[in-house]
Design brief:
CATH superfamily: 4'-phosphopantetheinyl transferase domain
Oligomer: single chain
CATH architecture: Alpha-Beta Complex
Distance between the termini: 5 Å
Strand order of the largest sheet: 1-5-4
Shape: globular
Number of domains: 1
Helix content: 40-55%
Order of helices and strands: EHHHHEEHEE
Length: 123
């Protein structure tokens, strides 16, 4: 059963500019596993923007915002077919266990200018 859905969109140039201003932004937003995956994708701005959107969409699907857990508790990784999937840990895992959320599914897309993601939290 669906607990909630979330969607997010961002201008890819906005991510580029933010990274140009703050080179440590990647470390603040993404786990070591995510950074390794983004490195394998060449740190493309559209990949970074897509992963950020997926995190935002997942938080919206939970209906919590970034309250009670850290952004690094939420990982967006890729399987062997490059399909994105969500890994939850830390306090976010505790929160999801309390809400009986079994899984968060995401999809990511981008054009030349925008990245977007949709997430569904499942009971």
């Amino acid at each position: 059963m669906i607990y909630g859905i979330g969607n997010d969109i961002i201008e890819i140039d906005r991510i580029r500019q933010a990274l140009d201003r703050n080179s440590r932004l990647i470390d603040k937003l993404f786990s070591d596993n995510e950074i390794a995956m983004l490195r394998a994708k060449g740190f493309k701005a559209q990949s970074i923007a897509g992963n950020f959107c997926a995190k935002e969409a997942a938080v919206k699907a939970l209906g919590t915002g970034l309250r009670g857990f850290k952004i690094l508790d939420l990982e967006i990784l890729r399987d062997e077919l490059d399909k994105p999937y969500v890994v939850i840990g830390g306090k976010l895992k505790d929160m999801c266990d309390e809400l009986e959320i079994s899984q968060i599914m995401v999809t990511i897309a981008h054009s030349d200018n925008y990245a977007t993601a949709t997430a569904i939290a499942l009971l």
